[in-house]
Amino acid sequence: MNLLKKLVEMTGVSGREERVRQFIIDEMTPLVDNVYTDTLGNVIGLKKAKGPMPKDGRKKIMLAAHMDEIGFVVSYIDDKGFLRMQPAGGFDPRTLMAQQVTVHGRKDLRGVIGSKPIHILTPEEAKKPLEIKDYFVDLGLPKEKVDELVKIGDPITMYRKFEKLGDCFTSKTFDDRVGVYCMLEAVRNIKSCPADLYVVATTQEEVGLRGAFAASSGIEPDVGIALDVTLANDVPGADGPSEISKLGAGTSLSIMNGASIANPKLFNRMEEIAMEKKIPYQKDVLPRGGTDAGALQKVKGGAAVITLSIPCRYVHSTVETVHKDDVQATTDLLAAYIENPGDLNYVL
After folding, report:
1. Which domain-ending residue is among 158, 192, 209?
2. How many structural domains is the chain composed of?
């Protein structure tokens, strides 16, 4: 899991993915025939199909896993050197109390997220939940030094290391570096693919699936498979219908989410392979939130799409948690599908 550790500990807020992008380029290059990037910074690898060209042309399968992470940009520096933040992606403000961050200024600076101490809150203030505007970043530096090292627009990322937690892993940024990991490992493990395979690490997913829209518009895939996390609400207080998925129960085939509905023929093919290969899987319906499949589904002519999801607890926090067996199951099912997708006729 050394590759996974490196991926989640790297930084890349939506629109500023340059560090993780270069790392993925280096990892992807030996796995495919060609690697290139586009204007939005997507990393696109092409692994060409072998054998004679079919009469109706070569089909195209596109894999998409987003490399960006939720974070912030510096929006204001006050007269004492404290920073205010503008979110890049969705945050639950409750998770931000007393967290550590990295401010990517002229150099990387460690900071802490602070707020007005509870001791001096008015009774009315104490009753209100904290909002992002109530937080600030403290760099422990005087105003003059902050002005020298930080400017408006600099990215801010959450700080947390990858750790083992029983049978699980916990860190920031499993959403969606674990999807990137499964995608790369699946391509590493395949011997061939009957279609041209586009392996895409997308940008700006957390702010509207923007990278996937751009990449898929250029590729125009016949089949689109997004790799992402789904909610694992198998925790106290969220039983029954609100569980969505469970850790340790296998990869999750997403029937629908807030951005896409799976092509039923493609869904059935994935389920068929999982059963044949005895790969543990579950099914999920995600009421809110979407994946890059939503962008792939809207390309010219429409692509048959599905999301293979890795169940994840505490999504969009610094302690996102995934189960090692679910990561493996997702990798195994993706590789098995790539090698034997069937006739690739998913027209309904």
Report:
1. 158
2. 2
Residue-range definition of the domain harbouring residue 260: 2-69+172-339
Helix (H/G/I), strand (E/B), else coil: 63: strand
75 and 44 share one domain: no
Angstrom distance (rounded) from CA 149 to CA 82: 13
56 shares a domain with 21: yes
pLDDT of residue 57: 76
Tell me the pLDDT tens digit for each residue of 135-183. 999 999 999 999 999 999 999 999 999 999 999 999 999 999 999 999 9
Set 205, 206, 243, 276: catalytic member? 205
Rounded to whole angstroms, the maximal C-alpha distance in the chain is 75
The yes-or-no answer on residue 271 being catalytic is no
109 within 8 A of 94, measured Cβ to Cβ = no
Q: Which two tokens stand for residue 98?
A: 């007393």
Q: Are 293 and 285 in contact (CB under 8 A)?
A: no
Alpha helices (H) in 139-277, listed in sequence order: 143-149, 174-189, 210-219, 264-276
The string over 137-172, giving b where at least 16 C-beta atoms fall within 10 Å of a residue's C-beta and e elsewhere, is: bebeeeeeebeebbeeebbbbbbbebeeeeebbbbb
308 and 191 inside one domain = yes
DSSP result, 67-124: --B-EEEEEEE-TTS-EEEEEES---GGGGTT-EEEEESSSEEEEEEE---GGG--HH
- Whether 189 and 333 map to the same domain: the answer is yes
On whether both 19 and 125 belong to a single domain, the answer is no
pLDDT in tens, 210-233: 999 999 999 999 999 999 999 999
Q: Please give the single-letter amino acid code of residue 155.
A: P
pTM: 0.95
- Domain boundary residue among 129, 158, 187? 158
Give residue 70's pLDDT: 96
Indicate the SS3 state at residue 152.
Answer: coil
**Amino acid in position 103:** V
Q: Which two tokens stand for residue 42?
A: 């997507």
Q: Is 123 in the same domain as 176?
A: no
Q: Which CATH number is 15's domain given?
A: 3.40.630.10
Q: Are residues 53 and 75 in the same domain?
A: no
Assess if residue 264 is contained within a domain: yes
- Residue from 69, 78, 88, 176 nearest 132 by CA: 88
